[in-house]
Specification:
single chain, about 240 residues, alpha+beta, OB fold (Dihydrolipoamide Acetyltransferase, E2P), Trna Endonuclease, Chain: A, domain 1, 2 domains, six-stranded mixed beta sheet, five-stranded mixed β-barrel, 3 helices, 15 strands, about 15% helix, globular
Length: about 240
């Protein structure tokens, strides 16, 4: 997935109201306000003074011209836009770059299912495969990626809906997409949301499949890179 326009570097002043960030663009003296497309806590990624990268848009319908795309943390680039996860995975599916999910005849996006949910991808023929994607940005230990970075009732509901599809005889897969380049392993963060992790473990026992892939990130774009092994759940 390539960015639509060249990214512009700057320094983060502050992130606030979840979806807003003030940034001083390199060479400028006054901050601009950028859209932050991440509803999570962004734990460890919103430190004032961090080097960030913004994308500009000339769309007159937008309230904010700038969007925050990348941040440099612990010496690596991290993609903070959760909306990019589906674009990255969709591109990889179309190119057959996820062997565990190859061979389906059709790929449909944002399909209604379960208890008033929408699955990110429905893969069809042969059979049905319900695929949910989660964007992962948290890392509190070198090389270990974690999810979630805050309590996620929505994520827990998705797990329950996916497990229900397994019970109906369909295949269901949860893919954790690590939008950072330093991941060597992945673990659910039980200390942050024990309910989510308990539900995840129960769903796995019921037949839910779980995959984790890391990305390659540059100021030009983000692409799916390699599978990442699972480690045990992170506890206090």
């Amino acid at each position: 997935m390539n960015f639509a326009a060249p990214l512009v570097p700057g320094r983060l002043v502050r992130r606030y109201k979840r979806f807003l960030a003030d940034v001083i663009i390199d060479g400028e003296s006054e901050p601009i306000t950028a859209h932050c497309a991440n509803p999570g806590s962004m734990l460890g990624l919103a430190v004032p003074g961090s080097r960030v990268f913004l994308e500009a848009s000339d769309d007159p319908r937008r309230k904010l011209r700038w969007s925050w795309r990348l941040v440099e943390a612990e010496g690596t680039l991290v993609g903070i836009d959760t909306g990019h996860a589906n674009a990255i995975v969709g591109e990889a599916l179309e190119r057959g770059r996820i062997p565990e999910l190859a061979g389906f005849a059709t790929i449909r996006r944002e399909v209604a299912y379960g208890s008033a949910s929408r699955v990110d991808f429905l893969l069809e023929g042969p059979g049905l495969c319900f695929l949910e994607v989660k964007s992962v940005t948290l890392s509190r230990r070198p090389g270990l990626a974690e999810f979630p970075d805050s309590v996620t009732a929505r994520g827990t509901k998705h797990l329950q809906d996916l497990a229900a599809e397994v019970a109906r005889g369909h295949r269901a897969v949860l893919l954790y997409l690590v939008q950072r380049g330093d991941a060597a392993s992945f673990a659910p963060a039980a200390d942050i949301d024990p309910t989510y992790v308990e539900t995840f473990q129960k769903a796995r026992a019921q037949g839910l499949e779980a995959l984790c892939y890391a990305c390659t990130l540059t100021p030009a774009g983000i692409t799916l890179d390699r599978p990442v092994p699972f480690a045990g759940a992170t506890t206090p």
